Description:
Elements: E1 7-10, E2 28-31, E3 39-41, E4 46-50, E5 53-56, E6 61-66, H1 69-75, E7 77-79, E8 84-86, E9 95-100, E10 106-108, E11 113-121
Amino acid sequence: MFKINILVKKLKENAVIPTRGSEKAAGYDLYAVIDSGSVIIPPHKTVPVGTGLAFALPDGYFGAIFARSGLATKKGLAPANKVGVIDSDYRGEIMVALHNHSKTSQQIEPQERIAQLVITPFLQADFEEVQTLGE
């Protein structure tokens, strides 16, 4: 298994460094940072939830934010954009825009796991316009 070092900065004291549910898990759990109480997400609405973290991802990698299956199946909550992308040059707080697909209001508690982060390499491409393409 190939490992890389990810620099992470806590922007809020109560932020939680991402964790994995098992040794072979591809995704790292991201946790909600809520200043007071809980966050209520009304039916069919989207609410941004902060993680209190900022990353410095290495060049050639990006962070993909995916839904947590438990949150999606139990509460009907998933990232509004389906898959979020954290570019290697982004240094702001990681936010997860959670959308409530259910018919009832849903609640997010402080330090609840809200999404999964997968660190992924990518290829850069040059696009060349042509008149025809091969079969």
